[in-house]
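Field reference: sequence -> structure
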Amino acid sequence: MVERVLVVDDDTTVRDVVRRYLEHAGYEVELAGDGEQALRSMVAHEPDIVVLDLMLPGIDGLEVCRRIRQRGSTPVVMLTALGEEEDRIAGLQIGADDYVTKPFSPRELALRVSSVLRRASRTYEPRVVRDGDLVLDVAAHTATLDGVPLQLTTREFDLLAFFIANAGRAFGRTELLERVWGWQFGDQSTVTVHVRRLREKIEKDPAKPMRLSTVWGVGYRYDRCSID
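Structure field:
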């Protein structure tokens, strides 16, 4: 089955260049020039992933990303201008899975799309991981806390599954970027934002985490609340 990408950008040149590269990579591409058109296309075409510019006329990219997250877990790769760190962090906090800064290499963008889709669709051995009231169904790619479903993005799920599988070991941000994101280099604040979002979802008091701890000078460590 051909995977469908929705590209949202108000610049016709950017849309055309991105479309050609993604089609050459084997994807089916839908285009949208503003936020309203993007949201209509989400309903009409149900894309497998969205490439989303944050600077859009009308409904901006952050709001589009927020509404996509309300609909489900469709992966989102943001396009942000160089230097727009606050917008980039805001997008990651809302639930975007990845980002590429403008000006960007269309080839790099196609690789990022492929990487995010691969992580979203990869199959796992049927396995349920439990840590007290936190349960991850790795095969179904779902998680619950005290019986309540957690709304995790693909990247958040992968990060949580990685931490639990390696409980008790501290990881630096660079190593997490390599092993969870698959990046050889990148903005380490991406890891910081995703850890913060995970704490908000799995910790009773995110300010005093019991599971996902900061190891000063190193990075982060997951500590199980239960003993197997």
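Note: Helices lie at 12-24, 35-45, 61-71, 85-94, 106-121, 154-165, 173-181, 189-202.
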